[in-house]
Amino acid sequence: MGSTPGPRADRPRRRSFTAEYKLAMVAAYDRLPAGEKGALLRREGLYSSHIIEWRRARDAGTLTGPPPRSTPVANSARTAEQSEIERLRRQNERLAADLARNKAALEIMGKAHAFLQLLSENADHDPKSSR
Questions:
Q1: What are the φ and ψ backbone dihedral angles of 42, each rounded to 5 degrees?
Q2: Where are the domains of the chain?
Q3: 61-to-6, 11, 12 alpha-carbon distances in Å
Q4: Going along the chain, which residue ranges are E strands?
Q5: What is the pLDDT at residue 72?
Q6: Tens-place pLDDT, residues 13-62
Q7: What is the C-alpha to C-alpha distance for residues 111 and 74, in angstroms, rounded to an integer?
Q8: Beta-carbon neighbour count of residue 55 at 10 Å?
Q9: CA 96, CA 65: separation in Å to the nearest integer?
Q10: How far apart are CA 94 and CA 62, in angstroms?
């Protein structure tokens, strides 16, 4: 008779990535030409679905990493300066996310304008077919 095996020590753990890493990987992926993107994914052990998901989160302004680990603090009361720094950091992150969304929207609008202008020019120069 054998004993029931206990929890495995070599069980794989789910990976978690920081927001900074996610942003860096999306930026690096977007900079590479098409033939080199797969090499980045293989080197980092990522899937294209990671990049797609992280890009969507970045564009929506919801890109976050794993929750920060709490560390015991000798003096649990934060100073007014620490609170102000934290508030400003969060505000800076929100503004950076807003800026990224606005830049993406402006880029899309610029492309749409160029496309419509091209269609308009083609319509002006193409003779109508008569039936």
A1: -65, -45
A2: 17-65, 87-131
A3: 42, 34, 30
A4: none
A5: 55
A6: 888 889 899 999 999 999 999 889 999 999 999 999 999 999 999 888 88
A7: 55
A8: 19
A9: 16
A10: 9
Contacts of residue 55, defined as CB under 8 A and 6 or more positions apart, other chains included, come to 26, 30
Check residue 13 and give its pLDDT. 82
Q: Quick check: pTM over 0.70?
A: no
Identify the burial level of 54 via C-beta atoms within 10 angstroms of its C-beta, where 0-12 means exposed, 13-18 middle and 19 or more buried: buried
58: closest CA among 115, 16, 109, 96? 96
Token representation of residue 113 = 């304008």
What the block records as the tokens of 108 is 């899309």
**DSSP letter string over 5-37?**
P---TT--------HHHHHHHHHHHHHS-GGGH
**Cα Rg of the chain (Å, integer):** 25
